[in-house]
Amino acid sequence: MQINVIRTLQEMNSLQEEWNALLKNSASDVPFLRHEYLSTWWQTLGGGEWTEADLYIVTGRQADGSLVGIAPLFFSRNRSGEPALLLLGCIEISDYLDLIVPAQHLSTFIDDLFTHLSGPQAPAWSVLDWYNFIDSSATLPVLQEAAARRGWNYTQEPLQHCPYIPIPGDWENYLASIDKKQRHEIRRKMRRAETEFEPTRWYIVQEEAGVESGIEDFMSMMAQDPAKNRFLTEAMRTQFRLSTQAAFRAGWLQLSFLEIGGGKAAGYLNFDYNNHLWIYNSALNFTYREYSPGWVLLGYLLQWANENKRQQFDFMRGDEDYKYRFGAVDRRVERVMIRR
Q1: What is the DSSP code (8-state) at residue 104?
Q2: How many CB atoms lie within 10 A of CB 23?
Q3: What is d(CA 188, CA 144) in angstroms, rounded to the nearest whole number?
Q4: Cα end-to-end span (Å), the chain
Q5: CA count, 13 A, side-chain hemisphere, 313
Q6: CA 239 to CA 281: how far, in whole Å?
Q7: What's the CA gap between 62 and 60, in Å, rounded?
Q8: Where are the beta strands (DSSP E) in 114-260?
Q9: pLDDT tens for residues 107-136?
Q10: Do 126 and 52 form a contact (C-beta atoms < 8 A)?
Q11: 313 CA to centre of own chain
């Protein structure tokens, strides 16, 4: 396999079409590995999460020139201060990460990747510190086996819970699958919103101009929560603008709002990608808190996901109780550390 290294955003952008085509056939096809997401992430270094970093994307091509593997990496010091190669997107704002490789090429690509990384041309890393693999990732056992063959130390630790709901494709069947009390609460709150309040509607933003104004409204609602307000630095706001606009242009953004009496009461920023709905972030206008607008909008989104035959409703990282009350099944994301 021919190994090449990409060190600039310009070089990375030249791969966009091949990158996304490869991702579609890879063992882990998630929105956080899309070229448009990771290229905007790199422009802000994760909304300011990293202050110094060098791009170090490793690609693998077969003899005919076809791209069969991407290790989307950067070189920096990790949280412990060690020189490390990390996955683009890590740590805080990209829920699921991985290598971009079809399952049948994983072993060969990882072997060749490790050969390259053990050579003098690679950065002087002390650890491969890779976050946010889904615990079922096909990459994990291959990494462990490849590290063992070289005598490298491999450790894997569970990180956050990331519950998801399998979608049956029918709203009533979904409701029948969850706890009776919760089913009653969902129906009651949605019915109350529709019949007892001022005019109520929910919608998905359809126009790019609406995305630009909608993300500003969304961040304004987020900022009403003190913790989210601290999170929304100017660099993070720039990251949100860039990533949502890029996702919209690529066709997989779902920005939705619930309005009560003409005012935005709640919002969800999701990714509608690969026949799954990925629930990325939420925002609440505290003025409407007594109406449970977040729950109401979540109910509408679940109904939409069933009617539109999505396969999963993925809450991603975080073990908040309401996710399980809506019927979520648990899983985890993992951190892998490999030392020479």
Answers
A1: G
A2: 21
A3: 49
A4: 23
A5: 25
A6: 14
A7: 7
A8: 127-134, 153-161, 164-166, 200-204, 253-260
A9: 999 999 999 999 999 999 999 999 999 999
A10: no
A11: 13
* CA–CA dist 289, 225 (Å, integer): 12
Question: Would you kindly state where each structural domain of the chain is located, as residue ranges?
Answer: 2-160+335-339, 164-314
Helix (H) or strand (E) holding 282: strand 276-284
- DSSP 8-state code for residue 330: P
Domains 2-160+335-339 and 164-314 share a fold: yes
Q: What is the pLDDT of residues 40-96, one digit of tens each?
A: 999 999 999 999 999 999 999 999 999 999 999 999 999 999 999 999 999 999 999
Distance CA 1, CA 6 (A): 16
Distance in angstroms (rounded) separating the CA atoms of residues 169 and 311: 7
CATH number of 164-314: 3.40.630.30
Architecture in CATH of 2-160+335-339: 3-Layer(aba) Sandwich (3.40)
Which residues are CB-contacts of 213 (< 8 A; sequence separation ≥ 6)? none
- The CA distances from residue 313 to 7, 40, 214, in Å, are 36, 25, 22
Q: What is the pTM of this model?
A: 0.95
Secondary structure element (H or E) that encloses residue 192, with its range: helix 180-195
Q: Which residues, at least 6 apart from 142, have a Cβ–Cβ distance to it below 8 Å?
A: 106, 107, 110
Cα 284 to chain centroid, rounded: 21
